Amino acid sequence: MDQIDRKILKVLQANARASLQEIGQAVGLSSSPCWERIRKLEQSGVIEGYTVRLNAQGLGLADTVLVQLTLDSHTDNTLEKFGETLAAIPEVIEAYLVSGEYDYLLRVAVKDTRDYERLLRERLYKIKGIRHSKSSFVLRTLKKADLPL
Questions:
Q1: CATH numbers and ranges of domains, the chain
Q2: What's the rounded Cα separation, in Å, for the pair 5 and 92?
Q3: Which H helix or E strand runs over 122?
Q4: Left (φ > 0), alpha (ψ -120 to 50) or beta: where does 64 sit?
Q5: Rg (CA), the chain
Q6: Plot region of 60 (φ>0 → left; ψ -120 to 50 → alpha; else → beta)
Q7: Strand 92-97 relative to strand 130-137: parallel, antiparallel, unpaired?
Q8: Please, are residues 109 and 94 in contact by the beta-carbon 8 Å criterion?
Q9: pTM for this entry
């Protein structure tokens, strides 16, 4: 990956709907070589896909909660089942297996505190094997950024 590829990625991060002409103009290439580079970036897995960035509050999901979880067991089977269970919970928008005091860090999107309480009762606390959890409501997002290039 060279500087032109990185410039293409920056343009796409800013606007994934940019036309080949717009991208080519921004990086100094004609459409055909620009398309070839984008295709190679897609095939190599650098570009995983194209998405729309949604506003959580606009969707009625005003609160973000960071949840730290510890499991009773750490067998491969337990971790796999836990991951599958989390994948089926739409409010869990990110889940990380982490080092440190807790095993997992989750980012959860909910309407409000009552909605979070419902999620805890109906979904999270019904998952077998959770030993301990700690929740923190996000008060304000200070930085939200794309990957550095």
A1: 3-43 (1.10.10.10), 57-137 (3.30.70.920)
A2: 33
A3: helix 113-122
A4: beta
A5: 20
A6: left
A7: unpaired
A8: no
A9: 0.83
What's the CA gap between 136 and 62, in Å, rounded?
14
Residue entry with tokens 């070839």: 36
Share of the chain above pLDDT 90, in %: 87
**CA–CA gap between residue 94 and residue 134 (Å, rounded):** 16
The owner of tokens 């959860």 is 108
CA distance 104 to 38: 34
Given a cut of 90, whether residue 147 has pLDDT beyond it is no
Task: Please give the sequence-ordered ranges of beta strands (E in DSSP) within 18-139, or none if there are none.
Answer: 63-71, 92-97, 104-110, 130-137
Instruction: Please give the helix or strand (H or E) that residue 24 lies within, else none.
Output: helix 20-27
